[in-house]
Amino acid sequence: MFIPHAVRQMSRPDRMIKTSEIRDVIKYGEIIENYPEDARGHSCLVFGFGENTRFIHVVCSPKKDYLAIITAYIPDSNQWEKT
Predict the structure, then answer these.
(1) 20 to 30 Å CA-CA from 7: which of 19, 37, 50, 74?
(2) Residue 78 lies in a domain
(3) How many domains does the chain have?
């Protein structure tokens, strides 16, 4: 389930992140930060690749019956180290 904030962030003209890219990040990406004590409930930051191997971060929260996509963005290379 895509939270409205995620849809707004994915739809920004400088991002335009497709739902298929989010699926690939979740399916093939790597959890790089875990937030078990988040006030909204357990969540995590997943790093993966979208189209043309662009880097994408997805913050998601596993719920009983679904995975909530909280936000998605292209990480700033000045803030995140490429591994």
Answers:
(1) 37
(2) no
(3) 1
